Each structure stands twice: as C-alpha cells, then as structure tokens.
Amino acid sequence: MGKAKATRGDRAGAATTAEKIRAAAEELFCLRGFEAVSVADVAERAGVNKALVFYHFESKAHLFDLVLARYYDAHTAALAGAFADEGALAERLHRVVDAYLDFMADNRRYAALVQQQLTEPGTHARIRRHLEPLLRFLEQALAGATPPKGPLAGRQFFVTFSGMVTHYFTYAPLLGALWGGDPMSRAALDERRAHVHWLVDAILARLADERPAKARPARARTR
Predict the structure, then answer these.
(1) Domain contains 155
(2) What helix, strand, coil percent values describe the chain, rounded to 5?
(3) Residue 218: predicted pLDDT
(4) What CA–CA distance (Å, rounded) separates 197 from 201?
C-alpha cells in the first residue's frame, strides 16, 4: 500500500516538474525566440536542475516543438469547433472570427513568437508543419465559395485572415502610443472585432459577385 502511494506521488511530482519546465520554456521562447534561449535558461526559470530538463525533454528543439504543438493544436481546435456548428457560411465564418480573436487575445505572446521565428530559417520547418492543418482547415471551410487556384483561392484568404487578426496583437505594443489608448482594452478589442467582421462580410459579398451566374442562387421574380 505504502509503495503504491509513493509511486503515485512520484508520478505526480514528475508531471508537476515537467509542466514547470514546459511553462518556463513557453515564457522564455515567447519573450526571446528559440535561438536566444538555452536549456540553462529554462532550468533557471523553472527552478530546477539543468539535468531535469534533459530528463523530461530530450533537447531544446524537442521542448520547442512541444510548446508549438500545444499552441497550434489548441488554435486549430478553437477554429474548427467554431466552424463545426450549423449555419450559413457567413454565420460560421463570423463564429470563426470570434473564436480566432478570443484565442489570440488569450495567447497574444505567441503571435510575436511566430513572427519572430519566421526570420529564423532554422525553425521554418517546425512552424510550417503546424501551419499546414490551419491552411487545410480554411481551404476546406471556403471550398464552396472560392476557386482552388488564383487570387480568390482559399490559400490567399488564409494569409488575409491570419494577418488581419494576428498582426493586431503583434502591433499592440506600438498601437497604444500611436492611438493614445490601450489596444488590449475591452472596448478596443470589440472595435477590432467589429472591423474584422465587416471585412468578412465585404469579402463574402465580393465572392458572391465573382461567382458565375449559373452558380448563384436564383432570385425570386418581382411582380
């Protein structure tokens, strides 16, 4: 009995230590980027011995991958969950916009991390691997409204939607001084939300105009 309790306690302690290390790595990576953080930095921030970092995570690169995976898995799940409920395409995309903005507001430091890593070729493959599910999700979501190729293809809207949401959070530290207010306040975020919703409506309206006449819903004749 006593041995079983000790084993459970050891497992709980190991899980707590691993989570402390992961949380410390997440904080440091988001503050400094991958290259500027060492395993010793992570150990110091977590308050553990450096050897424990290697015990729980085989390398700094592995730890970085896990931090990215945690973020992107939650990111993809939030958007897919918002789109999954029934409704017209416009309704579903507006729910996705709300989920996207809410998710980034809760994970704003990741916007800066990803932007920073785009300047580091050594981590491109890791970012690309996690971006692909998001790209495929949006392409499938817009499959009935956009062509597979060209300027109106889903891949173009992936860049457009990503930019108009994430760039707000990467620019936020500068916007306060430029705007004379806190861009992270509830009022400012609601204003940004309304602006992005307006853009979605404008894009959908233009897409509807671009569709061939035979593909458009028939309009009721007026008497």
Answers:
(1) yes
(2) 80, 0, 20
(3) 46
(4) 6
